[in-house]
Structures are given as structure tokens and as C-alpha cells.
Amino acid sequence: MERQRYPRTTKGDAVSPLLLDVVAGRSTRLRQLRKFLAGSVIASLAFSLVLGSARGTHAFVSRSASPKRQEAGETDWDWTQLEPSRTLQWHRCYNDTYDCARLDIPLDWLDPSDDPQDRVALGVIRLRASALDDYKGPLLFNPGGPGGSGVAALINRGALLQAIAGRNYDIVSFDPRGIGTTIPRIECWDSPESGLIWDLQDPGVVDAHPGVIFDNFARATLLAQVCEQHPSSRLLPYVSTASHARDMLEILHQMGYEKLAYWGFSYGTVLGGVFAALYPDKIERLVSDGNVDYREWFTHAHVNFLRDTDKVMLAFFRYCHQVGPSRCDFWAPSPQAIQERLADLLDRIREHPVIVPASESGPSMPQLVTWSRVKRQLSTTLYQPLYMFSNFATAAKALEDGNGEPFYRLSPGNFISSVCSVDGVPSDRPRLEEGNADAFPAILCADSPPADDTLEIFAKFVDGLIDISSSVGDVLALFRTACVGRTIRPKWRFAGPFEGNTSHPILYVANIADNVAPLISARNNSEGFPGSVILVQNVYGHTSLAAPSACTAGYIRAYFQNGTLPAPGTVCEPDYYPFDTLPTTEAGDELSVAYRELSKANWNFQPKP
To answer: In this structure, what DSSP letter does residue 451 have?
Structure first.
């Protein structure tokens, strides 16, 4: 089908200067929006997928629900002023920088109904192309999760994605079912305060102390009951990834296109893989970055995802030793000595947590740095070694000296000090949020077979993960409990086969060692799609965004613009390595600067305890 252009207005076309400023780091408007969206979350959803241990589910966002508001004229845009429509009706939004729409779609794609109770209002957002001479249409992207907000992600970093893929693309995203501006929204608690109080009862990482594993398993069972009794649970049979993929197809059709251009990160690779398997003849371009193993995800196995985790941990010891004591505060005479030093610190903190006193520069009330908090922060650090290794080394050295303030400053969002500032929004009203922690288990369990875990099975699973990853296998063990006690089953669950002769080959992007999406996952996924190619980045951490690479950015740009694929076996080097001093100015060509800024953005791939 020939690509169709949509009507343009003079006002709508005047976007290009803003985009140029964004890449150059000069846009006040986008800076304000980024600051606004960052809220209390610290850049540091795992698998976008890792579960926050406090809830037995993935909790990668603050419980403040919606991001903190900064400039009313820039961010206080009300989605309720848009009436949902069965056709995509765009309206200028967020100070006329974007187009927003609320698309009225069936709750059940297998049995559509006109009953208002059986409809979903999908929040969709677009950053228009500014280079129209070779206009290529929409490029959809998903930031990860499941539970991540595509709307918030596009506001936060859509212009950077566009700078890499090409300004002749519209960048389009949406909040998947149950999340953010899409209603009804999935929720487990009647108020956000209740959720925070639940979080405060967190028993810690499963092997923090004897008996904690039993508490975690019981909490997971109780949380499942609470979530399935909430009024929003009527949505749960209709939130599988298959439904999200069909929603994405509907957006595509509403925009006048038959084939998809798509860029998915972390869980977004699952969404892209399902779309490619369901609709292989509708692939125009598909970049799959930070690959979750399709088969593991849909069989609820969750073992393979840790295969490279300890490789990333060992990289910390190696790089710290390599750069020396002037650049790594946790230095020791050998990588093995650094490893032993960290093990000694953890043993000491398990018995003697470090007190962080209340202060003007620290928390508003005294806090404890416990073994579980250090382990969780260690897990978070492995997502972005380039930006986190040095800070973690400094915080660890301070903990040795009994000083917990550097650790607190590293992750203040992980310390709950108040339940009074929570901004609650009813589940039937759209809200702008980085993501929805309650949506993660709902979507995961809709994709999984029925859960039949017993405490004994879970304990054996924990032991297996610790055997695979001694560094953080215990932190990530609660991934398995997300579906414990869940009884509501999906109406439409796609579980493969994950294969197909796509109309254009898929580009898989994978790091040499990814802490939650190992290189082997990309290889497994690629096997089902003939002609697909894996571009390997010689980087540690989650997704190619763990470290900027002009090489990687160039291949992604060429793929989206021309459809060209790198030669099999291509490996890209990063522009920087852990403990390097990063530039403070926007030096370099536009593509390099854009990828560097994109890698620094708040992607929320890490868990929020």
C-alpha cells in the first residue's frame, strides 16, 4: 500500500528548530519536560523486567503515580479534554509540541462489542516529522516494561529517537492497556497511600535472613488476591501482549499504513516479536533492542535471562582495577581483591546496617542502609555500568567507613519517607505517568501458563537462580512470584510459534553481556525469522543504551532509512567505557550526540524496590 501523507498545518510544521535544539542540548522546553517526567525516579523496567522486591512484582516507578508537576504551561495538559474516538483524531498537546489522541478500541478483539464497558480508550502521542521531502510515515516504539508508558517516554526522549532514526519519520507511541493515559487503568489498591504502606512492609531480598523467603511467597499470594479483587480486574483477561500487538496494528491502520516500522526496547522486544509472528507480512522495519527470550517469557521459565549477569558484575571488578584508585574509590590490587572487598562489605552490612541520619542534604528522617538495599542497588547498577559503576564504587567505599549519605544520594527514590505527597488519580481517568507497577504482573501473567508454584518449587527456583548469578540472582528471584496466586486467565494468549518470513528482515541489537537480556536470547529469537541479523555491541549492561555508540547509531539509522542490515558478525565498539570521564558539552556529530543523550535518559529499566 502506498504511504499516505496526513494534512499539515503551518503551526504543526514549525517543529524542526525544536528538534535541532534538543539534539544540541539547548531546548529548555524538553529539558523541563524531562525533569518533570523524571519525578523521584533515579536514572541508574527489568527485563524493564526486574521485579521490585517490595511488591513481589516489577515496581520500576515511584508510587507518586503521576510525575511531579513543574511548569503548568508545559506539563499540565489534561487528557480528559479529548473525547475518545473510533478514528484517530489528533489534537495539538503539551504546548503544541506533540499531537495527542484517544483511540476507542474493543476490549476484546476476538469478540468486539459496542458496549461502553467493553471498550478501551487508548492514549496515543505523536512527534511529527520535520523533514518532509522524503517522508517515511510513522515509526512506533515501546520503551519496555511491561508497564512502561509510551506517552511519557516519547515526551521524554522521542526527539532523540527521531534524530537517530531520521526526522522524516513521525515518532509515535501509546500507553498499552492498563497504563497511564489509557483507561481503564490496572490498579491493585484503592489509594496510592495504601500501596505505599504495603511497600513499607517489604521483608527484603529472599535470602536476607532466615524465613524471609516464606514472607515473600506469602506476600505474593496476598498481593495477587488484592489485585484480582480490585474493580479494575475486569481488564485482566484482555491485557496479554497479543492484545497490545493488535492495538498497535489498529494504530497503524488508523494512520493509513499497512506495514509497521518499529523500535522496541527490553519488553518492547517481546511486543515486537509477537507482532512479527502474528503479522509477518506487515513488517517494514523492526529493531529489537535488549532482547527478552520469547519462549522463556511465554513459558514463565525465567532462567536464561541471568546467563550474562555475573559477566557484567565481573566487569565492575575488572574495570575498577584497570583504572586505578584515582578513578575508582573501591580499588584494590586485583579484580579478585575488589570482589572479596565487596563480599566483606555485604557480610558486614547484613549484621550491621549503616544509619543515614536526617539532614538538609540527606533524608528528611533517619534511614537504614540494609543488606537488601545494597543488593538491590547493585542489581540496578548493572543496568548502566557507564553511568553507575563509578558512583556505586564511591558509595561502597563510604559504607565501609560507616557513611551512608553517598549511598542515599545514589538512590534517594528507594527510601520512602512520606505517604502524604502521593497524587492519586481514579483508574477511570487518564494520567501521565512513567509507568504502572501494577500492570507488570498483570501482563506477564496474561502471557504465561497458569501458575502452579508451591513454596517448595519457589525455593528450588531461588537456589537455581543464585547458582546462575551469585551476584544478584537472589534479588531477581521474585520475578517468579509475580503470578503466584493469580487465577484470572487471558481471553487471548499467543504463545508462539515465534517464527515467520517477515516482509523485511528484523534487526536484533544486543550487548556482549546484558544483565537481564543475554546475547543468547537475541540468537534464540533470531532463529525463527529468516534473514534477520544480530548487531552486537561490545558493551556491558541492558540494551544498547547502556553506553552510546556512534557505530550502533549509524547502523540503526541506515536500517530505518534504507533497510540495509549490518553484515552478520558485526560488532560495534562503544564511544566510552566505565569509569571514563564523560564530556559535559555536546561535542561530536549530531548522531553521536543524540545517542549519547538517549543513553543518559531515564529509561526506568531498573527495578524500584
So the answer is: P
